[in-house]
Amino acid sequence: MKRIAILILACVTFLLAATPQEPAATLPESLAGLMPPGAMLYLEAKDFKSLLSDWNDSREKQLWLKSDNYQVFSRSRLFIKLQQAQSEFATAAGSVPDMAFTGSIAGGRSALGLYDVGHLQFLYITRMPSARVMESVLWKVREKFEPRKAGGTAYFIHTDTVHHRVVAFAIADDYLFIATREDLIARALELYSGKPGANLSHEKWFEDVTHASAEPGDLRLALSMQALVRSPHFRSYWIQRNVSEFKPYEAEIANIHRSVKEIREDRVLLREDAAGPAPNGAAGQGLGEILRFVPANAGLFRAWENPSVARVLDLLEQKILSPHGGKAPPSRLAPQVVLGNGNAGGEGDFETRIDVAPPVTTGGTLQIDELKKLFQNFAPTAALQIDSTRAAAGGVLVGTESAVVLNVARDWDGAAVRDALQSAVAPLWTTSNLGVQWIRHEQGGKTYYELNGLDRLSVAADGPSLIIATGPQLLLSVLARSSTRAANESGTYAAGFRHAQERDQLIKLLHFVEIPAASRLAAFSTAAGREPLFFSENLASMSSALASVKSESIVVRDLGPRVTQTVRYELGP
């Protein structure tokens, strides 16, 4: 088992070389009972030494360290900040917190509590034989530390007067304690001695989220969402840039379970408002009914139960009727100034009229009024988006194909659907209704319709299911699934990506898309070479490092006061 949840494990082990182990019978069931209150993040492992060993020995680690993705990350501001924290920790501890250091203090059952994101203030507890602790680098440089005592146990502390970094450690029976604040280690030792007092396991957010959670996994991560959202450092460095989406939630917990064939992550998010919104489809069958349409060769799928009409219209517009990307994120770079020679125009501008307003055009836009009325009348109970890459003729270029499936509570009116689609695309595709006439086809006992224009649009109404696709090939693959049994799944949202199937085609597609950017990036070349292209080189290199992940999927269930998510990573050889 050489695969782990890379993002969590790599980040934690890189941060400050903290590594964990397993508690005695007299200790609390969870090491959170030894953590002082106030932590915003809590990570516990059943056997951290084993996880660390798996990561160090893994092929994924070796490939990632050589990848463009890692090279870009190693030049990022976040990486530099982490390096600075490592350097300051090394000065205070008398040892560099690298992987060798981490391995020397890695135990079995372990826990890490993070109390300040900006200053990386943490408490780490791990179970390991005291004889092994005394062979560690920390113990060998203890003469640089000042001895003190708490809870009847001696601890050692040193403060770097330049950066004011604190490192403290203690050995209690077969437990190693490491902290970057003296009050944290002193309080932890008092709790270990049996002295009563407040601890992390008694904090409301932690109690709520652990009670709502299932059995702990190989790794358990608990987050105080409200504390994290208040942290300016978290808001600045959180790569997803979606901090506002965390605000309704009080806490989150994730349990990660590993096996030879998969990694499963069970998440629970608790809303701050205990009442929460009304449960949305937690026990409904809409999701299972529509997931049966996902063909085996689909690269990506996303499904919603009880989607809004606005979502359905956006889905059809972006994927089928008028494909386009989403709104670009706002630029965080200052605008460039281009200095010309002062000329306000040129000979190429003689045909540009400046004395009259530009003409107003009424055509060339999608007209969705009829579609909107249709969907309001039929009220879809579930929606499914399917996307795949496909090799173009000759095998050089790569294209994409998409389909949308809509389920309703009664049979669709096929003629009304075709009329609404025709009225929607006619102003966009033609000025004289050429190419927007439906042609009827039959194949394998199934009937579908296709527009006869230059652009491709296929549609089939099969009882309560409506399939709209960019071409007949994908539509027929989806339609062939109509006789299969409903998937054994319930929830409000589900999605999946078949990484092994799509990886090579996507990288080739992205390479062609980004070729024009390569010439622009040449201006930013350095002695070490130009910056890797984001999609076809940076992200593609991460995809190559994680080639053993065959597919990923997620199922979300909105239960009102809490939201559960199950994420699965299918592993291959």
Describe the model.
- The protein is α+β, with helices and mostly antiparallel strands and 573 residues long.
- Among the domains are: 6-71 and 80-214, no CATH class; 286-324 and 365-490, no CATH class.
- Helices cover 32% and strands 25% of the residues.
- The protein is built from 19 helices and 20 strands.
- The protein has a 20-stranded antiparallel sheet, sandwiched between helices.
- Helix 14 (309-321) packs across helix 15 and helix 15 (369-378) runs antiparallel to helix 16 (414-429).
- It is elongated and about 90 Å long.
- The N and C termini lie close together (11 Å).
**Cα distance, first to last residue?**
11 Å
Number of strands: 20
Helix-strand category: alpha+beta
Approximate helicity band: 25-40%
Quote the average pLDDT: 85
Strand proportion: 15-25%
Radius of gyration, CA atoms, in whole angstroms = 29 Å
Please count the helical segments. 19
Major beta sheet, specifics?
20 strands, antiparallel
Morphology? elongated
Low-confidence stretches: 1-25
